[in-house]
Amino acid sequence: MEQQPPTSTQPSSTPPPAAPKTNNPFDNQKPIPGVKRIIAVGSGKGGVGKSSLTLALAEGLKKKYDWKVGILDADIYGPSLPRLTGTLHQKLEVNADNQLVPIKRHGFQLVSIGHLVDEDAAVVWRGPMLFKAIQQFLFDVNWGELDCLLIDLPPGTGDVALTLAQKTKIDGAIVISTPQNMSLSDARKAINMFEQINIPLLGMIENMSYMIGPNNEKLDVFPKGQLKSFLETHKIPLLSSIPLDPSFALSCEAGLPSVPKELSNSLEVLKTKLL
Fold this sequence. Notes:
CATH class: Alpha Beta
Largest sheet: 8 strands, mixed
CATH superfamily: P-loop containing nucleotide triphosphate hydrolases
Low-confidence stretches: none
CATH architecture: 3-Layer(aba) Sandwich
Strand order of the largest sheet: 5-6-2-7-1-8-9-12
Shape: globular
Number of strands: 12
Number of helices: 9
Mean pLDDT: 90
């Protein structure tokens, strides 16, 4: 009977097949031509004055540092930018390069779904159409040269913020909250969302923090929750505490941007974090 050759115990010189590479959607980020830095403004919920303060931040950066600022209203289902800027009846146009041309108002470049549809029209879109609109607002707009693009995020922690983070690099986020724990609960979710999608947190703004009474005293409009202790524990800077001011509310309703002095005082901190 023919003897069989002994089986080799030496390890094979052939390397094992490499593990398949996972596709990281954040690796596909692209810069927006002409835009130096991008700030996202979120809250986790509606009704805290996020859009109004986004406009106030834009006005402050423009006035104090002469920055060229654009605002992207990323709230597809509930856009506020047209009313806040007095551009309700202006529509986006398309240039010869098939790019959307932002609305120019108050020295800003403005883009909102509200500049494409009537204010009373409901935008009834499924996810894919939403994603396409966000991509177009980022890359199919002739933004020009901007020192800063502010993105007004919709309420919640869902598709829009994730899509934005995957499409382009966002330099930082600001979270808006009111004092009570109900608002803080949603703001914490927004903070957690920014951590998960790798957007640095620049700080928090407490809106409607108090109001000034007839004798110049501070009056709490909402019950004070655990906001202060939460920020201290997590080492999150409080950029500003904005009072409930009827004159600021009127300017927003009239479509005229203004900057609460309490917010103006914190702009230097914000600029330092961005540069």
